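Morning!

As promised:
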Amino acid sequence: MARTQATGRPVPPPRPFVLWPLYIFLGTATVLGISHHLNIDIQALLWGLGDISEYIGRFGTPELSNFPRVASLMAETLAMAVWGTALAVIIAVILAPLAARNLSPNPILYRTAREALNALRALPDLLFASIFVAALGLGPLPGVLAIGLHSAGFLGKVLAEILERVDVGTYEAMRSVGANFAQIVMWAGWPSALQEAVGYTIFLIDRNVRVAAILGLVGAGGIGMELTVAFRLFQYDRAAGLILVLLIVILSIDYISDWARRLVR
Amino acid sequence: MKIVSFRRWPTSNGLPPRAMVLIGTAVIFVLTLSYPLLDINFSTLIHAPARLVWFLGNFFTSPDWEWLGHLAVKLAETVEMALLGTLVAAVISLPLGFLGARNASPHPFISHMVRACLSSVRAFPEMMWALVFVAAVGLGALPGVAAIALVTVGFLGKFLAESLEAVPNSVLEGVIAHGARPMQVRAFALLPHAWPDFVSVLFVVFEHNVRAATVLGLVGAGGIGYDMTMAMRLFQFDRLVLIILAIWLVVTILDRLSDALRRRII
């Protein structure tokens, strides 16, 4: 080790470059630049904090006088989420083996399935919902279809990745006894992937309940419609009641799905 | 303990495993039970495919290319909203993550409180918060950014708290053995260990936020969503085609980009 002549102490290694100031500068510049571009007045925001707290205070008295109606809307929301997830599972189970690189029977099919899943995932669920509402009319059916298609993209990609991660030997063993594509998927692919797949499906139900709650915004059924109306008419008490019910349901489903996922892990 | 296990499939007698039969029955039970709630009658379902094909046929028009300039501005605005929301949320969630992690929090009570706040913020989707904020501060990008930032704080804070709790004790002991004070343990043992995961999840969150930002305009919270609803309401399919293609393109490009970046960082 190099020692300086005068003191004989070891020379410490050179200080590493500290890039923090650069990152902080870049981050601040981005934030300020964007907020200038989007016409967001940070000063006005700080002045407005008092107004915002006053505004939140208006939600203080939740009104639950028409509870049966709220409950039935909430039930409809949950049903939309469950059926949407079921649709997503069906689509994903069909597309995922085709989109798994080590299983797919031919490269063109692989690319097509992969890009289809990507497109389903890329387009927001509210876009799907508004298209389906325009085509099929108001009601929960467009909501179910929108949830199903969008989350099929997510689930399909995850399932394909799980199938790709399965040990090579498992597929090899099936191929060596002459199994065709369908047999490999059925008896080697899904048995190895099921445990994880169920976990992700439970997670998906949890997520879809939240999505179903807002799809009513474009008229696709559920509690969202009622909520939008309450906000548009500035009926804070009613909105607070709806939000309260929604919060309780969503948090309890969050808790249940956490528990269920730990069960299958 | 594994309560529900699929490890024994294919079974020796060729029948599906019991766990699968049980879950399958439960799922079918729930589906049939909840079907009446959906209020879908049979004739709607029969006519749905034909109506859908008819409607989607409208999309085969020549796109309104003149409008492309406006579209580009709106798309840039959408991505900027997501970026701003994500950056602000990342900064806010750093201290909250430390307060929420059991091994970094000054008191267990504080960690419980912070976690409860984070999970209630996370309970609602961005759209719902946007609805609240638009009513509070008016139309524009600000309520959209605030909604995105709030939900993202909820997610990132919880994520950071969990990855801080996953830091092995040996790392902490190593730093403490050198005489580090509690704040130094947080800065030099906990943070460096959780940092790479935090940064890589930032990319995922950003991508999610771009997707969320594309629809926030529906309630007047800025971005492309407003034009999307207007085009949908007025049946301007020549614009709608462009919007859908543009959203698909931007999200896909960002997806690939963030994947590549994430792989370089890890």
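The first helix of chain B runs from residue 18 to 38.

Hope this helps with the figure draft.
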